[in-house]
Every structure is written in C-alpha cells, then in structure tokens.
Amino acid sequence: MKLIASLQTILNRQAEHERFASASYLALAHWCSDQEYNGFARFFHSQAEEETEHMLKLQSHLLDREAKPVLEAMPAPVNEFSNLTAAAEHALELERENTLGIETAYAAANEANDYAAQALLQWFITEQVEEEAWATKMVTLCKRAECSGAIYNLDRHINKELAEEG
Ligand code: FEO
Predict the structure, then answer these.
(1) Looking at ligand 1, which residue's alpha carbon is closest to its atom 1?
(2) CA 20 to 30 Å from 80, out of 21, 31, 38, 153?
(3) Rounded to an integer, what is the distance from CA 19 to the centroid of its chain?
C-alpha cells in the first residue's frame, strides 16, 4: 500500500523530529553527567534510546510502504543549561513540540484517508500523553527540590519518582 507523496514527506519529517529528540536527550544526559547528576543522566540516556526507537518505527512504516526514509542535516541540540530545572523544562518543550508534529501528521493521514498511517500515529498520540506527563512531573520535582535544597536526593531517586507517575 504505497504512501502518497505528501504523507511520505510528513512522516519523514516526524522521523527526523524523533532523531533530533534523541540527540537532544543525549545532550541532556551528557550535561547531567558533567554536573554529577547521574540519576538524571541515566534517565535521559534511556529517553535518547526510546526516541531512536520512535524514529525507527516511523522509518519502518515508510519502508513497508515503498517510501525510502531520508536523513537530513540536523541543527545542533541544546548542550548547555543554567540548572537542572532548565534542563527539565527543555525536555518538556521537546515533548510538546513532538506532540505538535504527531498531531500534524495525524491530521494529514486523516485528510488522505490513510488508515494504516492513522493506526501508526494513534500509537504515537497515546505515547505522547505519557511523555508529556513524565516531563511535566520532572519540572515540578526539580522546582520543588531546588526550593528545599533536595536536588541530590531527587537525582538518586529520579527513575523511581517518574515511574510512579505511570
Ligand atoms: Fe518520541 Fe518523546 O517522543
């Protein structure tokens, strides 16, 4: 079932968004490691891997539908943050942008009456609810920990704190 050209472009663009998100999380992980926030670094590393999986999921769909994925030049991710809350806010911003990209792609799939692409993108729509939820929670926890001076305690427990969200 060959993809129409316009949808091919939009799905490829979304795959590229996911690739950029992966690079951005890797930059976040490295910044955290450099600052000795090793719990956050671990968490962002796993997010980077997850975003690569998302990119591959979209690219597999393109290939299954006779459309070759195209990798383009990417802007550099943000590498420096003023503090941990700013890093968490950046993660939330990335997720919100990704949600917008998914919604744009889903609208295009609806417009094209492309049921296969709709089904694929529904998975991403559900995923984005989770992604925005943990990112929002991370911002809240970072702000609270900065106020109480408990940032290193939060760093030790970040995976557990965010897992409890789910
Ligand atoms: Fe692939 Fe965090 O969205």
Answers:
(1) 51
(2) 153
(3) 9
Residues with CB under 6 A from ligand 1: 18, 21, 51, 54, 95, 98, 131
pTM of the model: 0.94
Q: Does domain 5-163 have CATH number 1.20.1260.10?
A: yes
Q: Whole-angstrom distance between the N-terminal and C-terminal Cα of the chain?
A: 36
| Residue 20 CA to ligand 1 centre (angstroms) | 10
Q: How far is the CA of 87 from the centre of ligand 1 (A)?
A: 16
One digit per residue, the tens of pLDDT, for the chain of length 166 reads 899 999 999 999 999 999 999 999 999 999 999 999 999 999 999 999 999 999 999 999 999 999 999 999 999 999 999 999 999 999 999 999 999 999 999 999 999 999 999 999 999 999 999 999 999 999 999 999 988 889 989 999 998 888 865 4
CA–CA distance, 53 with 124 (Å, rounded to integer): 12
